[in-house]
Amino acid sequence: MMKPLSTAKVRSVREIKKKAKMKKINKLITTIVVVVLLLLIVFFSTKTFFLEDFSFSELFSSDQEFRETEAGITFVSKNFAITDAITSLEKDQNISVFYSVPYDNPEYMSTIPDLFYIYPSVFSAKGKTTTLIIGILDEQNNLINCFSNLGDPQKNEELTYEECDELINKEQTLIYIRHPEDREKTEVYFSVEEKMITIVPKNIEDLHIATFLLLEAMYEDFENIMQKIREFSIDQDIDYIN
């Protein structure tokens, strides 16, 4: 209710101007809020059909993590959905495959001969060149030296640490296969930024499973490729492809 003139306070010009200024500020704030709300409505309306892939972390984090588990193998990717990471990393025509071998277990590679040949076989069927690298690691998992075919199936050269380091850091996708170690689960990490896929297995069986799942995700015709590889293996009396 309006106060009687006799009891109303007389406001100075400064007070009147101050209140007018506050009204303008409040009006501006209200306008900004309305605009922001409208923008949010538009933003979310464009997300309506993509709710399965949408996460609030898209709004507040630039380091989103994607995880999927299949056959007991956990696939992890930063900032890219698993399928998008695989598609991006598979594009290279030249792919390096690095196997780490403990210096105190030189016979390790003889336990996974099929895995040693499956990558170049599959990549060759897709018209790609594979650089195989066998890295010898010390007990702290530091690289000592390596052996490589340098992208040529007929070669097998021993390289120094410096040569290995240069080969590993080439601008092409690298699949880094760690030797099995005592751990809770097997994980496959994708880093599009580093152009790297890392397989960290808990045992040889899981390493096989992770390899087949990875290649199957890369190529829809993987089973057909494997069938041709098996037929070739039989014709050549080779028993390393299961």
Which helices and strands appear, and what pairs or packs with what?
Elements: H1 13-46, H2 57-60, E1 65-70, E2 73-78, H3 82-90, E3 94-102, H4 113-125, E4 129-137, E5 143-148, E6 157-159, H5 161-168, E7 173-177, E8 186-191, E9 196-200, H6 204-218, H7 222-235
Question: What can you see in these coordinates?
Answer:
- Helices cover about 40% and strands about 25% of the residues.
- The protein has about 240 residues and is an alpha/beta fold.
- It has one domain (about 65-235).
- A hairpin with an 8-residue loop joins strand 5 (about 145-150) and strand 6.
- It starts with 12 loop residues before the first helix and ends in a 7-residue tail after the last helix.
- About 20% of the residues are buried.
- The model is unreliable at about 1-20 and about 30-60 (pLDDT under 50).
Radius of gyration over all CA atoms, rounded: 30 Å
The largest beta-sheet arranges its strands as 1-2-8-9-7-3-4-5-6
Helical stretch count? Answer: 7
Mean pLDDT: 76
Task: Count the domains.
Answer: 1
Oligomeric description of these chains: single chain
Distance between the termini: 91 Å
Helical proportion, percent range: 40-55%
Query: How many beta-strand segments?
Result: 9
Structural class: alpha/beta
Q: Give helix and strand order, one letter per element, not per position.
A: HHEEHEHEEEHEEEHH
Sketch the major β-sheet: 9 strands, mixed
Q: Assign an overall shape.
A: globular
Strand content: 15-25%
Low-confidence runs: 1-21, 31-62
